[in-house]
Amino acid sequence: MKKILTLILFLLFATPVFAGNNLTINCNSSGCDKVQDLPIFSENNIYPSFITSQSLTVNNNRQSKCQLNFNASNPQNSDSALLDQLQLSVVADQYPWYSSNFSYLFNSDLHSLGEINSQSNKIYTLTASLSPELGNELQNLSANFSLNFNFTCDDEPNSSTSSSTAASTPDTVCHDNSPSQIPQNLKAVAGQNSVTLTWDEPTDNFTYYLIAYSTNDTADTYGNPNVGSKGTKSYTVKDLSAGTKYYFKIRTGNGCAPGPFSTIVSATPGGQVLTNTTPAGFQPNVLGVQTTGNTAPLGATSTCTPVIPFAFALALLVNLILNRFRLFTFFVSSLSLIFDYFINRYTCVKHPYFYLANLVSFLLPLLISFRKNKK
């Protein structure tokens, strides 16, 4: 195994200048080198609702796959109030590998950023943000620290292992524990080109919230893992178009392991009609759809066990037995259709064939009865 530490300086001050650099790290059998000797972030005069993103490209030029981890160190005095509020997320391949406030990083733990296959690269999007709900309490605060990237590689493969085989190995590394609880009582209140979401916080362990939204009732088009860490109980999604109905859901996550999504809520904002706008911090398909080493779903839009269509089975059985009593069978089938509606509307189970199945359960006994009478 080989292990190399790469340091990237991260600076925050309170004078009006903005700067950032997309960086590249090349790793081979002799070590890892930064192509540019620059900080990935150097931001001044940050403010509530501030958000900035930079990319980090890691090229694995070795003949073995490698694991990338990171943590942070705080070599100089920094204001803890700023570190408690400043959020960092790391996203690669539309998957949020990490999100939390910076205070959480200052320990000895290494946080997984996944595997990089042999002779390939991975592009990470690092986003720093401050909640729009903050006031002026962070004025003139500063922070200065380093992000430490730990690049750990497998031993060199033997001659029987080809690079194409290694390159096809799925990225399956996540050792964090998924949160089990769901944010409850999610509510959406429409505003002027915005929707404010509120919820009740879960009591289990997690490092961040992710909000997903869409203009369809699955709420799975855009995701944002930068809405806040533990203690956050509201978030305003801005830059939404007036007159459009938006659907929202929320989940927690612990490092690279996401929890289950909440129920879906909707709201229609007022204001102006906007075109081609995406709220700051939201990216397409950043929901957490990934697999772990045990091949279990990680961060899919639902962690619920599929529901057996009991209503369909019951309606079919009753209709077959009592098919002569048309009014009763119609009543039973109607109840099953109502049951299906509530399953599809208020649970994480989405089964598009429930309605069709119950329609068949009503028509099939009638068809059998018709054929018997014809004979």
Please name the defining characteristics of this protein.
six-stranded mixed beta sheet; alpha+beta; Jelly Rolls; disordered N terminus
Provide an overview of this structure.
17% of the residues lie in helices and 36% in strands. It is of the alpha+beta class. It has three domains: 2-167, Sandwich (Jelly Rolls); 184-298, Sandwich (Immunoglobulin-like); 310-374, no CATH class. The chain has a six-stranded mixed β-sheet. Helix 3 runs parallel beside helix 5 (354-374). The longest helix has 21 residues, at 326-346. It is globular and about 85 Å long.
> What order do the strands of the largest sheet run in, or round the barrel if closed?
2-5-1-12-7-10
What is the alpha-carbon Rg in Å? 26 Å
Approximate strand percentage: 35-45%
What is the CATH architecture annotation of the largest domain? Answer: Sandwich
- At the first level of CATH, the class of the largest domain is Mainly Beta
Write down the overall mean pLDDT: 74
H/E series:
EEEEEEEHEEEEEHEEEEEEEEEEEHHH
C-alpha termini separation: 78 Å
